[in-house]
Amino acid sequence: MLNRVYRLVEARTIEPVAEFVEVTGDSVVVRPTHLSICNADQRYYQGKRSAHVMAKKLPMALIHEGIGRVVYDRSGEYAPGTRVVMLPNDPVEDDDYIAENYLRSSHFAGSGYDGFMQELCVLPRRRVLALPEGIDTRVAAFTELVSVAVHAVTRFDGIAHGRKSDIGVWGDGNLGFIVSLILHLKYPQANIHVIGRNSFKLADFTFAAGTFLSSGIPEGLLVDHAFECCGGEGSTSAINQIIDHIRPEGTVSLMGVSEYPVPINTRMVLEKGLRFFGSSRSGRKDFERTLQMHREHPEMAKYLSALVGSVIPVESVKDIATAFDADVRKQMGKTIMEWKM
Protein backbone atom coordinates (compact mmCIF):
# COMPACT_ATOMS: atom_id res chain seq x y z
CA MET A 1 0.00 0.00 0.00
CA LEU A 2 1.29 3.47 -0.89
CA ASN A 3 1.15 5.87 2.03
CA ARG A 4 2.12 9.48 2.67
CA VAL A 5 4.10 10.27 5.83
CA TYR A 6 4.71 13.81 7.12
CA ARG A 7 8.18 13.77 8.68
CA LEU A 8 10.13 16.34 10.63
CA VAL A 9 13.50 16.56 8.87
CA GLU A 10 14.93 19.45 10.90
CA ALA A 11 13.59 21.99 13.36
CA ARG A 12 10.30 23.48 12.12
CA THR A 13 10.56 21.71 8.75
CA ILE A 14 8.00 19.06 7.78
CA GLU A 15 8.33 17.17 4.50
CA PRO A 16 5.79 14.74 3.02
CA VAL A 17 7.24 11.42 1.87
CA ALA A 18 5.48 8.70 -0.12
CA GLU A 19 6.42 5.16 0.85
CA PHE A 20 5.16 1.63 0.42
CA VAL A 21 3.75 -0.11 3.51
CA GLU A 22 2.96 -3.81 3.66
CA VAL A 23 -0.50 -4.70 4.97
CA THR A 24 -0.47 -8.14 6.61
CA GLY A 25 -3.29 -10.24 8.02
CA ASP A 26 -2.55 -8.82 11.49
CA SER A 27 -2.65 -5.20 10.31
CA VAL A 28 -5.39 -2.68 10.94
CA VAL A 29 -5.36 0.32 8.60
CA VAL A 30 -6.49 3.50 10.36
CA ARG A 31 -7.07 6.97 8.93
CA PRO A 32 -6.13 9.49 11.66
CA THR A 33 -8.83 12.06 12.41
CA HIS A 34 -7.67 13.90 15.55
CA LEU A 35 -4.06 14.27 16.73
CA SER A 36 -2.98 15.92 19.98
CA ILE A 37 0.30 17.82 20.33
CA CYS A 38 2.47 16.86 23.32
CA ASN A 39 5.35 18.81 24.88
CA ALA A 40 7.70 16.10 23.61
CA ASP A 41 6.51 16.79 20.05
CA GLN A 42 7.18 20.47 20.57
CA ARG A 43 10.72 19.88 21.80
CA TYR A 44 11.50 18.06 18.56
CA TYR A 45 9.61 20.51 16.35
CA GLN A 46 11.23 23.57 17.91
CA GLY A 47 14.68 21.94 17.90
CA LYS A 48 15.00 22.10 21.68
CA ARG A 49 16.53 18.64 22.01
CA SER A 50 20.32 18.37 21.78
CA ALA A 51 21.95 18.29 18.37
CA HIS A 52 22.98 14.69 19.05
CA VAL A 53 19.41 13.62 19.79
CA MET A 54 17.99 15.48 16.80
CA ALA A 55 20.52 13.86 14.48
CA LYS A 56 19.78 10.42 15.91
CA LYS A 57 15.97 10.65 15.83
CA LEU A 58 15.23 12.55 12.61
CA PRO A 59 13.70 12.25 10.14
CA MET A 60 10.49 10.99 11.73
CA ALA A 61 6.77 11.71 11.84
CA LEU A 62 5.70 13.33 15.11
CA ILE A 63 2.66 12.72 17.37
CA HIS A 64 1.92 9.82 19.71
CA GLU A 65 -1.53 10.94 20.89
CA GLY A 66 -4.28 10.30 18.39
CA ILE A 67 -7.47 8.60 17.24
CA GLY A 68 -8.85 7.66 13.86
CA ARG A 69 -11.31 5.55 11.90
CA VAL A 70 -10.65 2.06 10.63
CA VAL A 71 -10.28 1.86 6.86
CA TYR A 72 -9.46 -1.83 6.52
CA ASP A 73 -9.23 -4.89 8.76
CA ARG A 74 -8.93 -8.21 7.00
CA SER A 75 -10.05 -10.13 10.09
CA GLY A 76 -13.33 -8.24 10.33
CA GLU A 77 -12.86 -7.48 14.03
CA TYR A 78 -13.10 -3.76 13.31
CA ALA A 79 -15.72 -2.69 10.79
CA PRO A 80 -14.81 0.16 8.43
CA GLY A 81 -15.52 3.48 10.12
CA THR A 82 -14.99 2.18 13.68
CA ARG A 83 -13.49 4.89 15.86
CA VAL A 84 -10.29 3.70 17.53
CA VAL A 85 -7.47 5.00 19.67
CA MET A 86 -3.99 4.29 18.32
CA LEU A 87 -1.42 2.98 20.80
CA PRO A 88 2.09 4.44 20.37
CA ASN A 89 4.14 1.82 22.21
CA ASP A 90 5.16 -1.17 20.09
CA PRO A 91 6.84 -3.90 22.18
CA VAL A 92 8.96 -6.48 20.38
CA GLU A 93 9.40 -8.83 23.35
CA ASP A 94 7.68 -9.95 26.56
CA ASP A 95 9.17 -9.87 30.03
CA ASP A 96 7.77 -11.44 33.21
CA TYR A 97 8.87 -8.51 35.37
CA ILE A 98 9.25 -5.43 33.17
CA ALA A 99 6.21 -3.75 31.62
CA GLU A 100 6.19 -3.10 27.87
CA ASN A 101 6.60 0.67 28.30
CA TYR A 102 9.85 0.20 30.23
CA LEU A 103 11.48 -2.37 27.98
CA ARG A 104 14.41 -0.66 26.27
CA SER A 105 13.71 -2.66 23.13
CA SER A 106 10.19 -1.25 22.62
CA HIS A 107 9.52 1.13 19.74
CA PHE A 108 7.61 4.31 20.55
CA ALA A 109 5.81 6.40 17.94
CA GLY A 110 7.23 9.89 17.55
CA SER A 111 10.45 9.04 19.40
CA GLY A 112 12.84 7.58 16.89
CA TYR A 113 10.00 5.84 15.05
CA ASP A 114 7.28 7.38 12.89
CA GLY A 115 4.35 8.81 14.80
CA PHE A 116 0.77 9.33 13.65
CA MET A 117 1.26 12.28 11.27
CA GLN A 118 0.47 10.09 8.29
CA GLU A 119 -2.24 9.78 5.69
CA LEU A 120 -2.89 6.23 6.93
CA CYS A 121 -1.45 4.34 9.89
CA VAL A 122 -0.88 0.61 9.40
CA LEU A 123 -0.78 -0.83 12.90
CA PRO A 124 -0.54 -4.30 14.44
CA ARG A 125 -3.88 -5.34 15.94
CA ARG A 126 -2.43 -5.06 19.48
CA ARG A 127 -1.99 -1.31 18.94
CA VAL A 128 -5.65 -0.51 18.25
CA LEU A 129 -8.61 -0.29 20.66
CA ALA A 130 -12.21 0.71 19.94
CA LEU A 131 -13.39 3.90 21.63
CA PRO A 132 -16.48 3.98 23.86
CA GLU A 133 -19.65 5.12 22.11
CA GLY A 134 -20.36 8.83 22.30
CA ILE A 135 -17.02 9.97 23.71
CA ASP A 136 -16.01 13.50 22.69
CA THR A 137 -13.47 13.10 19.86
CA ARG A 138 -11.50 16.09 21.12
CA VAL A 139 -11.06 14.46 24.53
CA ALA A 140 -10.42 11.05 22.99
CA ALA A 141 -7.52 12.56 21.00
CA PHE A 142 -5.35 12.75 24.15
CA THR A 143 -6.34 9.34 25.55
CA GLU A 144 -2.64 8.45 25.56
CA LEU A 145 -1.87 11.18 28.10
CA VAL A 146 -4.76 10.03 30.28
CA SER A 147 -3.45 6.46 30.08
CA VAL A 148 -0.08 7.67 31.38
CA ALA A 149 -1.86 9.05 34.46
CA VAL A 150 -3.86 5.83 34.85
CA HIS A 151 -0.61 3.85 34.63
CA ALA A 152 1.01 5.92 37.39
CA VAL A 153 -2.03 5.68 39.68
CA THR A 154 -2.26 1.92 39.09
CA ARG A 155 1.39 1.49 40.08
CA PHE A 156 0.86 3.78 43.08
CA ASP A 157 -2.02 1.58 44.24
CA GLY A 158 0.33 -1.40 44.43
CA ILE A 159 3.22 0.44 46.09
CA ALA A 160 1.68 2.87 48.60
CA HIS A 161 0.41 1.86 52.04
CA GLY A 162 -3.32 1.69 52.65
CA ARG A 163 -3.89 5.06 54.32
CA LYS A 164 -4.94 7.35 51.49
CA SER A 165 -7.00 9.99 53.27
CA ASP A 166 -5.01 12.94 51.89
CA ILE A 167 -3.16 12.90 48.57
CA GLY A 168 -1.23 15.87 47.23
CA VAL A 169 -0.64 16.67 43.58
CA TRP A 170 2.05 19.22 42.74
CA GLY A 171 1.46 20.74 39.30
CA ASP A 172 -1.44 22.69 37.79
CA GLY A 173 -0.82 21.82 34.12
CA ASN A 174 -2.47 19.22 31.93
CA LEU A 175 -0.77 16.26 33.63
CA GLY A 176 -1.53 17.53 37.12
CA PHE A 177 -5.19 18.02 36.17
CA ILE A 178 -5.53 14.51 34.75
CA VAL A 179 -3.70 12.79 37.62
CA SER A 180 -5.85 14.66 40.15
CA LEU A 181 -9.02 13.65 38.31
CA ILE A 182 -8.01 9.96 38.12
CA LEU A 183 -7.19 9.99 41.85
CA HIS A 184 -10.56 11.62 42.60
CA LEU A 185 -12.43 8.95 40.65
CA LYS A 186 -10.40 6.02 42.02
CA TYR A 187 -10.38 7.19 45.65
CA PRO A 188 -13.64 9.14 46.06
CA GLN A 189 -13.25 9.28 49.85
CA ALA A 190 -9.77 10.82 49.68
CA ASN A 191 -9.05 14.53 49.90
CA ILE A 192 -7.11 15.56 46.80
CA HIS A 193 -4.99 18.66 47.43
CA VAL A 194 -3.53 20.42 44.38
CA ILE A 195 -0.57 22.77 44.58
CA GLY A 196 0.32 25.01 41.63
CA ARG A 197 1.68 28.36 40.56
CA ASN A 198 -1.31 29.81 38.67
CA SER A 199 -4.60 30.65 40.33
CA PHE A 200 -6.46 30.75 37.00
CA LYS A 201 -5.39 27.15 36.29
CA LEU A 202 -6.21 25.96 39.78
CA ALA A 203 -9.75 27.30 39.34
CA ASP A 204 -10.45 24.40 36.95
CA PHE A 205 -9.75 21.77 39.63
CA THR A 206 -13.36 21.85 40.82
CA PHE A 207 -13.25 18.23 42.03
CA ALA A 208 -10.30 18.81 44.40
CA ALA A 209 -10.75 19.15 48.15
CA GLY A 210 -8.42 22.15 48.10
CA THR A 211 -6.10 24.10 45.84
CA PHE A 212 -3.12 26.16 46.96
CA LEU A 213 -0.48 28.34 45.38
CA SER A 214 2.98 26.89 45.90
CA SER A 215 4.04 30.20 47.44
CA GLY A 216 1.38 29.94 50.15
CA ILE A 217 0.95 26.34 51.25
CA PRO A 218 -0.51 26.23 54.78
CA GLU A 219 2.07 25.01 57.31
CA GLY A 220 -0.42 22.51 58.66
CA LEU A 221 -1.14 20.84 55.32
CA LEU A 222 0.04 17.23 55.48
CA VAL A 223 -0.55 14.48 52.93
CA ASP A 224 -0.20 10.72 53.12
CA HIS A 225 1.18 10.46 49.57
CA ALA A 226 2.03 12.80 46.71
CA PHE A 227 2.41 13.06 42.93
CA GLU A 228 4.97 15.38 41.32
CA CYS A 229 3.65 16.56 37.93
CA CYS A 230 5.77 19.68 37.38
CA GLY A 231 8.96 18.70 35.62
CA GLY A 232 11.57 21.09 34.25
CA GLU A 233 12.75 23.89 36.51
CA GLY A 234 9.83 23.35 38.86
CA SER A 235 10.86 19.82 39.83
CA THR A 236 13.34 20.79 42.56
CA SER A 237 11.02 23.05 44.54
CA ALA A 238 8.04 20.72 44.05
CA ILE A 239 9.87 17.61 45.27
CA ASN A 240 11.31 19.39 48.28
CA GLN A 241 7.92 20.86 49.18
CA ILE A 242 6.49 17.35 48.97
CA ILE A 243 9.18 16.10 51.35
CA ASP A 244 8.23 18.90 53.78
CA HIS A 245 4.47 18.23 53.64
CA ILE A 246 4.29 14.44 53.44
CA ARG A 247 3.75 12.21 56.44
CA PRO A 248 6.34 9.52 57.32
CA GLU A 249 6.42 6.40 55.12
CA GLY A 250 4.48 8.12 52.36
CA THR A 251 4.91 7.33 48.68
CA VAL A 252 5.93 9.91 46.09
CA SER A 253 5.20 9.40 42.39
CA LEU A 254 7.58 11.28 40.09
CA MET A 255 6.05 12.11 36.72
CA GLY A 256 7.51 15.44 35.63
CA VAL A 257 10.26 15.29 33.01
CA SER A 258 13.42 17.28 33.66
CA GLU A 259 16.35 17.61 31.27
CA TYR A 260 18.80 18.14 34.14
CA PRO A 261 19.60 16.38 37.46
CA VAL A 262 17.33 17.45 40.32
CA PRO A 263 18.78 17.98 43.84
CA ILE A 264 16.52 16.81 46.68
CA ASN A 265 16.64 16.78 50.47
CA THR A 266 17.74 13.17 50.95
CA ARG A 267 18.21 13.64 54.72
CA MET A 268 14.46 14.03 55.21
CA VAL A 269 13.74 11.26 52.71
CA LEU A 270 15.69 8.96 55.03
CA GLU A 271 14.26 10.37 58.25
CA LYS A 272 10.68 9.95 57.02
CA GLY A 273 11.28 6.60 55.34
CA LEU A 274 9.75 7.79 52.07
CA ARG A 275 9.27 5.76 48.91
CA PHE A 276 9.93 7.39 45.54
CA PHE A 277 9.02 5.81 42.20
CA GLY A 278 8.99 7.04 38.63
CA SER A 279 6.42 6.44 35.91
CA SER A 280 6.63 7.02 32.17
CA ARG A 281 4.46 6.23 29.17
CA SER A 282 1.90 3.43 29.25
CA GLY A 283 0.96 0.09 27.70
CA ARG A 284 -2.09 -1.62 26.27
CA LYS A 285 -3.44 -2.60 29.70
CA ASP A 286 -3.35 1.05 30.75
CA PHE A 287 -5.32 2.06 27.65
CA GLU A 288 -7.86 -0.66 28.42
CA ARG A 289 -8.21 0.61 32.00
CA THR A 290 -8.60 4.18 30.73
CA LEU A 291 -11.38 3.30 28.30
CA GLN A 292 -13.11 1.26 31.01
CA MET A 293 -12.98 4.28 33.33
CA HIS A 294 -14.70 6.35 30.62
CA ARG A 295 -17.46 3.72 30.46
CA GLU A 296 -17.86 3.59 34.24
CA HIS A 297 -17.56 7.35 34.79
CA PRO A 298 -19.27 9.28 31.97
CA GLU A 299 -18.48 12.51 33.85
CA MET A 300 -14.77 11.87 33.26
CA ALA A 301 -14.92 13.12 29.67
CA LYS A 302 -16.83 16.23 30.78
CA TYR A 303 -14.09 17.11 33.26
CA LEU A 304 -11.39 16.43 30.66
CA SER A 305 -13.11 18.71 28.14
CA ALA A 306 -11.79 21.61 30.24
CA LEU A 307 -8.36 20.75 28.80
CA VAL A 308 -9.43 21.12 25.18
CA GLY A 309 -7.73 24.25 23.91
CA SER A 310 -7.41 24.99 20.20
CA VAL A 311 -8.90 22.64 17.62
CA ILE A 312 -7.16 23.42 14.33
CA PRO A 313 -8.14 21.89 10.97
CA VAL A 314 -5.02 20.62 9.18
CA GLU A 315 -5.18 20.25 5.41
CA SER A 316 -1.63 21.25 4.46
CA VAL A 317 1.93 21.35 5.77
CA LYS A 318 1.40 25.04 6.44
CA ASP A 319 -1.51 24.17 8.71
CA ILE A 320 0.77 21.84 10.71
CA ALA A 321 3.08 24.80 11.41
CA THR A 322 0.05 26.90 12.41
CA ALA A 323 -1.02 24.25 14.91
CA PHE A 324 2.43 23.91 16.49
CA ASP A 325 2.82 27.69 16.73
CA ALA A 326 -0.61 28.00 18.37
CA ASP A 327 0.35 25.30 20.84
CA VAL A 328 3.47 27.21 21.89
CA ARG A 329 1.37 30.29 22.71
CA LYS A 330 -1.23 28.46 24.81
CA GLN A 331 -1.38 28.94 28.57
CA MET A 332 -3.29 25.75 29.35
CA GLY A 333 -4.95 22.83 27.61
CA LYS A 334 -4.27 20.60 24.63
CA THR A 335 -3.95 21.66 21.01
CA ILE A 336 -5.86 19.22 18.79
CA MET A 337 -5.21 18.89 15.06
CA GLU A 338 -8.31 17.90 13.12
CA TRP A 339 -6.32 15.81 10.67
CA LYS A 340 -7.51 16.04 7.06
CA MET A 341 -4.31 15.18 5.23
What is this entry, summarized?
By secondary structure, the chain is of the alpha/beta class. 30% of the residues lie in helices and 27% in strands. It is built from eleven helices and 18 strands.
Helix and strand arrangement:
Layout: E1 2-10, E2 13-20, E3 27-36, H1 39-45, H2 51-57, E4 60-61, E5 65-73, E6 83-86, E7 89-90, E8 107-108, E9 121-124, E10 128-130, H3 137-140, H4 143-159, E11 166-170, H5 174-186, E12 191-196, H6 199-202, E13 210-213, E14 225-228, H7 235-245, E15 251-254, H8 266-272, E16 275-278, H9 284-296, H10 299-304, E17 308-314, H11 317-329, E18 334-339
Parallel strand pairs: 11-12, 11-14, 12-13, 14-15, 15-16, 17-18
Antiparallel strand pairs: 1-2, 1-4, 3-5, 3-9, 3-18, 5-6, 6-10, 7-8
Can you give keywords for this protein?
single chain; seven-stranded mixed sheet; 18 strands; 27% strand; 11 helices; 341 residues; 30% helix
Description of the molecule:
There is one protein chain. The strands form four sheets. Strands 3, 5, 6, 9, 10, 17 and 18 form a seven-stranded mixed beta sheet that branches. The chain has a six-stranded parallel beta sheet with strand order 13-12-11-14-15-16, sandwiched between helices. The chain has a three-stranded antiparallel beta sheet with strand order 2-1-4, covered by helices on one side. The protein has helices at residues 39-45, 51-57, 137-140, 143-159, 174-186, 199-202, 235-245, 266-272, 284-296, 299-304, 317-329, and strands spanning 2-10, 13-20, 27-36, 60-61, 65-73, 83-86, 89-90, 107-108, 121-124, 128-130, 166-170, 191-196, 210-213, 225-228, 251-254, 275-278, 308-314, 334-339. The protein is built from eleven helices and 18 strands. It is 30% helix and 27% strand. It is an alpha/beta fold and 341 residues long. The longest helix has 17 residues, at 143-159.
